[in-house]
Amino acid sequence: MGIGVVDTYTPLCMRMLGMHGAAFANYAVDDCDFLFALGARFDDRVAGVPAKFARNAKRIAHIDIDRAEVNKVKRAHWSYIGSMADALRALTAFGKRQKFERDYAPWHAHLADLKSKYAMNYDRNSPLIQPYYVIEEINKVAKGQAIIATGVGQHQMWAAQYCDFRAPRLWLTSGSMGTMGFGLPAAIGAQIANPNRLVIDIDGDSSVRMNVGELETVTTYDLPIKVVVLNNFGDGMVKQWQKLFHKGRLSASDRSLHKKDFVKAAQADGFRYAVRLDRKEDVPRVIEEFMKFDGPAFLEVMIDRDAGVYPMVGPGQAYEDMITVTSFRPVTRSRSRRPARRKCSDENTCTRWCASPISTRRSSSIVMRWACAKCRARRSRRVASRSYSSPPPAMRKRRSSSPTTGTRSPTLAAATSAIWPTRSMTSMQRASACGITVSPSTARRATGTWRSSARPTIFPSSCCRKVARCRRRSRGSPCPTQGSGRSANSGDPEPGSSPIMA
Predict the structure, then answer these.
(1) Distances, alpha carbon 432 to alpha carbons 44, 185, 399, 468, in Å
(2) Do the bridges between strand 59-64 and strand 388-389 make them parallel or antiparallel, or are there none, so unpaired?
(3) Which end of the chain is more exposed for a tag (fewer CB within 10 A), N or C?
(4) pLDDT at 19 over 60
């Protein structure tokens, strides 16, 4: 992990990028014209859509010691396999010999604007204890000098987002290996190797269960490790994905019925300081006591169970689709080359942000709720206009007796546009619902499929209730598609009819 290579207090440090990286870091990668990767790999958490990753970069350079990582996901225009230290020294010496100079003031101003506009934020007015608030208070005391160890899950990402690091090797985590329970043993090793440095283990209630027996190791050797357990009663990251992408169906991720008392477990293992924090107003005071305690200390914090890790780039999405928040309001980044996003007219209830047309809309809400009734209706109409199914036998028989059988069919658009001027149904659907003969080539072009029938037909499965009732009507009855008076056996509308779509 590259966290700590650059001091996070410096203005040019853009922190972590990727699925849960800082929004300004992701946008900076999107906006740059030259991307230089040093010992980093473009995995699926960084480049979820390789074709859209760093799309504005004219050149990509990659230095890595592992040849397999170069051109594996994102193709580099220049690469070097070997020691990064030697490569950087050689490049620096070459630049000095060439007297390379460039004015980066506009780019630095752009980065500062991104950091200001898309800074990390959360709901600071919530009555519940937010995990971001807890880590911010810990960071105020640590001041970027402590060694931070974590398990795997939401707490891992929160620590990476909100903790500062002034030097390398202060961030201990299992990275993409997903080793739950890694935090506490890693903190023990770090404290033994650095007895004079503050070591903090930020853990989750699920991760700490994996190696909860190591609490006794901490007290046995009297290691002054500070263990923080952010308890949200379950596998937080798994629950977040299940809520966002699996319609809220929780499977083996909720532990609200479990009765384990972590404070008593820590006391039983010899922790003289073991406290549970469950009131927001006590957070600053308790955090200060906990961090300044002389010896091993254990703190369980009862955080908001629904707190999520944001920003977030969903699976299979690019950085432009990232979910971000500013002052706890949904924010998307609009650019001139893309359709400007607009919010639904029902601002009080709708949290879905739409783009025009509906098929290209992107969701960017901090809380993934359904849209308002207007958005749902508009979306359902569009889906219905694309739904097709084969007509029932009665409809096939009715069409076979059409007076147009055996004659050349009129142009589909011309035959239907005069009768059905609305666009809520496609031309193929209107023709099929009303018995107009459709040539095989026209049907193949419209549906993209080949049919064995000499006269293929298409019927909408859910265009409207009236068309659905048309299936149950007997032969010879007038088609009630929209009350036009058009007969199923007639190729022309009745005199005086009013073909108006509902």
Answers:
(1) 45, 69, 9, 13
(2) unpaired
(3) C
(4) yes
